[in-house]
Thyroid hormone receptor, alpha (Nothobranchius pienaari), 218 residues
Amino acid sequence: MHILQPYCINRWPDVPKRKRKNSQCSVKSMSGYIPSYLEKDEPCVVCGDKATGYHYRCITCEGCKGFFRRTIQKNLHPSYSCKYDGCCFIDKITRNQCQLCRFKKCISVGMAIDLVLDDNKRVAKRRLIEENRERRKREEMVRTMQTRPQPDSAEWELIRMVTEAHQNTNASWKQKRKFLPDDIGHGQMMPSSGGDRVDLEVFSEFTKIMTPAITRVV
């Protein structure tokens, strides 16, 4: 069994500096959790275990990340104590034997207390991320709609023929209009064989809605 020994030099052992591949990688890596930017088998700066990414401004393993987060969120560090006057050597074997020295090591290597979010802030952050994701989806849909090409004459003729066939076999067309966006319905009008005028834009939009359902049935 590995016994925790006092580390009585009043400083932590030097943490090996990580070599940067280039300045661009350095800036991006410091901006958040980017595991793909880590070098192979890069060690946690707290305990030396295999690191998984940037956590609270330092390259750490999942264990030290979780320990640091729980300590701050639950305000546990005032209750931590050390049998060796705060001089324990921390590695991946001894890290669970002295909470005080492990926490002091986290602070000494630069882990940032202010980056640990409480429950309310964490929920708010997740909500903001989800809202931004949905906003980007809507913006992409708008750009797609704005850049879609207009039908050529042959396509308009095909739409007209399908519209006539649809109206000749389906009398409940007006009921389906309520499923379409309000801004749809001001497109080109074409006469049908029955004497009615057909809104081709409305029909085109409705066919886009119906096609996936028809495909699943077929």
Remarks:
- Residues 6-13, 15-34 have pLDDT under 50 and may be disordered.
- Strands lie at 53-55, 58-60, 189-191, 197-199.
- The first strand starts at residue 53 and ends at 55.
